Input
Amino acid sequence: MASPTTVLETQTSAAFPAVDAAAELHPAAAGNDFAVDPISSDLAKSKEFKMEAEATEERKRKEKEAAANSLKRTIVIAAVVVAGIGAVFAITKKLREK
Output
């Protein structure tokens, strides 16, 4: 069996590497260079692109609806004006006959 000092020497030689305590306690002083996970980054970018595409499609759909509503409104107003003018002509014709 090995003596306690031999075991202790064996364990210390295979110990963890030294740690920079200042960098661990103050990470802002060490710099902000963090490793970026490429898969997560790609997923985030694809999600952003998807959201932008959906927003663009929604905006185009709303523009088409606005144009259609404007056209409908114009047609209804024109029909009311024509009906009003027709009513005025009919009333004046009846008044001329009497």
